[in-house]
From TrEMBL:
This is Beta-galactosidase. Its EC number is 3.2.1.23. Residues 618-674 form the Beta-galactosidase C-terminal domain. Keywords: Glycosidase, Hydrolase. Belongs to the glycosyl hydrolase 42 family. The lineage of its organism: Bacteria, Bacillati, Actinomycetota, Actinomycetes, Micromonosporales. SUPFAM superfamilies: (Trans)glycosidases, Class I glutamine amidotransferase-like. Residues 397-605 form the Beta-galactosidase trimerisation domain. InterPro entries: Beta_galactosidase_C (IPR013739), Beta_galactosidase_Trimer (IPR013738), Class_I_gatase-like (IPR029062), GH (IPR017853), Glyco_hydro_42 (IPR003476), Glyco_hydro_42_N (IPR013529), Glyco_hydro_b (IPR013780).
Length: 679
């Protein structure tokens, strides 16, 4: 199963007409026409409306909403409405609400408040999905199904405790195997009955918050279980939909979202969709990483950008406004990295509650002359001109970056070496170096096939699973380069230390061993002197300083301070026809960039605009072989570069000539259909 079939990149977003009288719908669709809105996501939060009581279903409002969209010529991604359960359900079945980390049973309220292990919730949510699919499966406007909404959170109730024990029985088979995996001889924790096992919470294994646990193995398994428990909710609803419809099914993911291992979900999604709300408005590389992670969930299949704000969010302490041109730029960035849909939250601003100040295509006054609406309309016109040129296009990456939820969890629940090291920040630093170098990157799970890549970057690969060390060795053996960092190769799948020198099974590839490591406060900087040939640079390093003893590796960088001054901080090891690189220190961004570029240079992988700061360049290749070059200027001022290849800008019709200047305005975008090289 693939993406919904569309003739062009779908454009529109999350629309909630149930919040408005029908005369407002007329105004909205008139404005949708102006903005070229062709796709709406409907019914995300309609459970209370469509099922107002346990045995009562009322589809009259949803019927009118879906019918109106069809009459107006819009495509519909129809939701099951189960993103938030109704008040009557919490009252009639209190066990449906969650128990939090502190052991408190929640009452009705908020949004993510459904226990994923509740039989009542699972039965009623699946039944609602079944009825909606049966009712609207043959409606010509419906092109796909949207299950739930932004799954997340956790529950620690007795139902989840029982579910956890069942999950553990399936995983380990016997208590003996479980006790071995969890290392329960420590602190007299040996379990002699399955019923003795409790969810790890503030009442059990955690004493200073969610990341401080006495037994990492127990907590790691509960994180895995909770991800799987919520996946079971999605699978319940998808199976119910399949009784009536073969249209593709998705749910909106949230990029680099810690509580849920999206790699465990990928096979169950017909297509990936996700909501892009970056942590600030200054980190385009962060968004690019998240886009590439989402694209990598299903082996490079394009995804839908299901939500983004056209202007500002309303969920943070500070919610900056997107500057003129930035909404357009970020939308095209999503397309550049694999998006086959550009959708917003929300189409019309809610009048009340916590999202009334969240950005919307249509504001409270319903005007069509606001800056935000005009920019959305202009983007809609551009997407109309683009047509279907990018649909199904893939990214021809020769560089892979490994992203692993198990390593993320295990690293951040570990006692030592440093609680200041954050997995996302380490991964982003190395991705940012690749992004700055203009390299197309596939962000992949550690289980992915690596045979098609010249370079594999695996930052903070803390937890090693399966045959990954051997597959990384194969990359280097055939002439590729593997780059990994501090705190890699430390523990196995059960979060137990390897009984061998650090970095464990990566030792042969990297040609080093680490006997000691130093961790310091953020203000402590140890300079590192980097040298390859005639290229030298002194950079800073912070937080983690591993003391490396080469076992055949060449020293590329050395510490310049403390008692270990002069010892290796960065190494390169010849392995087969290739190399295994190891970065033992928390280098600053300049240092990471320097190392990454040395790796890329060996494979002639630097992008054509690698020396132009904040000019993003990426490629997608259409099913017919057409190469589409995206140039995105993330600066607030214009930039001019020489074209790398001749072609036509699909947004303007401008002719681009190899070697001649190409200008991009502030926050400007070019989508160039490149001509095939002669011969």
């Amino acid at each position: 199963m693939s993406l919904p079939r569309t003739r062009k990149v779908p454009f529109g977003g999350d629309y909630n007409p149930e919040q408005w009288p029908e005369e407002v719908w007329k105004q909205d669709y008139r404005l949708f026409d102006t903005a070229r809105i062709d796709t709406v996501t409907l019914g995300v939060f309609t459970w209370a409306r469509t099922q107002p009581a346990p045995d009562v279903y009322d589809f009259s409002t949803l019927d009118r909403i879906v019918e109106r969209a069809g009459v107006e010529g819009r495509q519909v991604c129809l939701a099951t409405g189960t993103g938030a359960h109704p008040a009557w359900l919490a009252r009639s079945s209190p066990e449906v609400t969650r128990v939090d980390f502190e052991g408190r049973r929640h009452r009705y309220g908020q949004r993510h408040n459904s226990c994923p292990s509740s039989p009542v919730f699972r039965r009623l949510s699946a039944e609602l999905a079944r009825r909606i699919a049966a009712r609207y499966a043959d409606h010509p406007a419906v092109v796909g199904w949207h299950v739930g909404n932004e799954y997340g959170g956790a529950c620690y109730c007795e139902l989840c405790a029982a579910g956890f024990r069942d999950w553990l029985r399936a995983r380990y088979g016997t208590l003996a195997a479980l006790n071995t995996a969890w290392y329960t001889t420590f602190w007299s924790h040996t379990f002699t009955d399955w019923e003795e096992i409790e969810p790890p919470s503030a009442l059990t294994e955690h004493w200073r918050g969610p990341n401080h646990t006495a037994f990492q193995g127990i907590t790691l398994d509960y994180l895995r279980f909770m991800s799987d428990a919520m996946l079971a909710n999605f699978v319940d609803e998808k199976a119910a939909i399949r009784q009536a419809s073969d249209l593709p099914v998705t749910t909106n993911l949230m990029g680099m979202y810690r509580p849920i291992d999206y790699h465990r979900w990928a096979d169950h999604l017909d297509f990936v969709s996700w909501d892009n709300y970056p942590p600030d408005d200054r980190s385009p590389g962060w968004m690019a990483l998240a886009h590439d992670l989402m694209r990598g969930l299903k082996a490079g299949q394009p995804f839908w950008l299901m939500e983004q704000t056209p202007s500002y969010t309303a969920s943070r302490d500070v919610n900056p406004l997107k500057r003129p041109g930035v909404m357009r730029l970020w939308s095209w960035q999503a397309v550049a990295h694999g998006a086959d849909a550009v959708l917003f939250f929300q189409m019309r601003a809610s009048r009340g509650a916590c999202e009334k100040y969240h950005g919307a295509v249509i504001g409270h006054a319903g005007r069509d002359d606001t800056r935000v609406f005009r920019e959305v309309a202009a983007l809609g016109a551009e997407l109309d001109r683009l047509g279907g040129a990018t649909l199904g296009a893939r990214t021809p990456a020769r560089v892979a970056l490994l992203f692993d939820w198990d390593s993320w969890w295990a690293l951040e629940i570990s006692d030592g070496p440093s609680r200041l090291v954050r997995y996302q920040q380490v991964v982003h630093a190395y991705y940012r170096a690749l992004w700055d170098a203009g390299v197309d990157v596939d962000v992949l799970p550690v289980t992915a096939d690596l045979t098609g890549y010249d370079v594999v970057v695996a930052p903070a690969l803390h937890l090693l699973k399966g045959d990954l060390p051997q597959r990384l060795e194969q990359v280097a053996d055939r002439g590729g380069s593997v780059l990994t960092t501090f705190l890699s190769g430390r523990v196995d799948e059960d979060d137990q230390a390897f009984l061998m020198d650090v970095p464990g099974p990566l030792g042969a590839l990297t040609g080093i061993r680490v006997d000691e490591w130093d961790a310091r406060e953020p203000e402590v900087v140890n300079p590192v002197r980097l040298t390859v040939g005639d290229t030298e640079l002194e950079v800073g390093s912070r937080l983690i300083f591993e003391l490396v003893i080469p076992q055949g590796a060449e020293v590329v960088g050395r510490y310049a301070a403390d008692f270990y001054a002069g010892t290796p901080a960065v190494t390169r090891n010849s392995f087969g026809a290739g190399h295994g690189w190891y970065v033992a220190a928390g280098l600053d961004q300049a240092g990471v960039n320097w190392v990454v570029r040395r790796v890329l240079e060996r494979h002639d992988l630097l992008g054509p605009y690698a020396d132009v700061p904040d000019l993003e360049s990426t490629v997608r290749v259409a099913p017919d072989g057409t190469r589409l070059r995206f140039l995105l200027n993330h600066r607030a001022e214009p930039v001019e570069v020489d074209a790398d290849r001749s072609g036509v800008d699909l947004l303007t019709g401008d002719r681009i000539t190899d070697g001649l200047p190409v200008r991009l305005d502030a926050y400007g975008v070019r989508v160039i259909r490149e001509e095939r090289a002669a011969g």
